[in-house]
Each structure stands twice: as structure tokens, then as C-alpha cells.
Amino acid sequence: AQSVAQPEDQVNVAEGNPLTVKCTYSVSGNPYLFWYVQYPNRGLQFLLKYITGDNLVKGSYGFEAEFNKSQTSFHLKKPSALVSDSALYFCAVREKAYKLSFGAGTTVTVRA
Amino acid sequence: DSGVTQTPKHLITATGQRVTLRCSPRSGDLSVYWYQQSLDQGLQFLIQYYNGEERAKGNILERFSAQQFPDLHSELNLSSLELGDSALYFCASSEGLAGSRSSYNEQFFGPGTRLTVL
Fold first, then answer.
1. Would you call A45 and B56 a contact, using CB atoms and an 8 Å cutoff?
2. Residue numbers in B near A104 (CB within 8 A)
3. What are B48's strand-pairing partners?
4. pLDDT tens digit string along B56-108?
5. Quick check: B2 and A43 CB within 8 A?
6. Omega into B8 within 30° of 0, i.e. cis?
């Protein structure tokens, strides 16, 4: 069974509009959740993580994510999207032995 | 720039051949992870080393092997290559000591090696 799911292959938004990329998880115990972004022909860049504490996590480039235990979700959000935010976004959960299991990824396209 | 370096950037080879991918972790990081990214399988964890010792194995084929050297750089060896091995191979590093607070640290990824098997 997949530990983390990204239900949307693609998300399209207009520049200046709010951006949400969805992620749900399925792990036993306390989840350690991460968001990464991948630009074309580049490696993955860390955006933010949830380990414990405040359910709203702030990260790089104006992104934030909300941890919701009852809905087992960790959606990535940005209040006002930029064209430069167009990229492939991955949600990940740390599993045993400290490896990351990644979702399938969501391609975000922000149109000018 | 994550501080993780990988060489080569691109590798083109033929079926049946053997290649070695190299990774240098960020300064101070003791853990190295290898991942494979392909269109059909997505991003898959292969193997983890911590301070020279293998710590975790994922979906790594028997034809693949890795090691981490005393200077902490790591190599991923892929042998008897098949067309389906064509993928982007990423190395990542973290401070990561099992059971410690630093094991919650994020992993930093290198730019990847694109392997094409013809």
C-alpha cells in the first residue's frame, strides 16, 4: 500500500491566485512529512517539513502546509502563485529506517 | 545548490554493460541515500548508507550495489544493464543518525545522473 498519495497529476492556476497541492498519507504512528519541488532537469529541493507541533508549517519561497491528523492530509499551499512556481511537487513521508517514500508527484502550471 | 554533487551528469551505455555513479554528500552529512526516478515507477528509494555502513534497503535490484567510502562519498554500481534501467538516479544526504533528533532532518538531493541504456 502506498504510504503517501497525491490525488492530482496536474494543477493549473493563474498567477496571483491561491495554489493548493494535495497530499494524503497512510502510516502508523506519528507521521514525518515533507514537501519537495523539482524544476526541469534539476534535483529535488526541500520546501518544508512537519515533525511535530504547530499544524501550520511555513517553508521556503512563501509556501506553507497544513497538517490535518483527522483527515490524514498534508496539503501544500501558497496564497499567491507565481509563474516561477511551475514545477513538479512531491509529498513524502519518512518511513522506517529513515527512508523517504514519495508520492507520484503533481505538476503545477501557473499561467501568466 | 544543495551541496550534494553527483557525477557524471549524463551517461549513455549499452545493454549488458556496467556503470558506476558517484556521489559526494554535503559537508558534515554522514548519511547517503540513492533514489531512482523513472516515468513508470516514479521516485523509488534504493539504498541508504550511514558512515560507511548499509542501513536500509529499498527496491534495489540484485544487479545493483552501492558502497560508502571512508571519506563519505558513495558509489552506485549498476551491472548487466537493461533498457528498463534507463532513469534519473539521485543521491541525497542528511545528518541522519538513527534514533537521534537529527534523523528528522530533511534530505538534500544532488542534481542527479541521467542514465540512458541503448
1. no
2. 42
3. B33, B56
4. 888 899 999 999 999 999 999 999 999 999 999 999 998 866 555 555 678 89
5. yes
6. yes
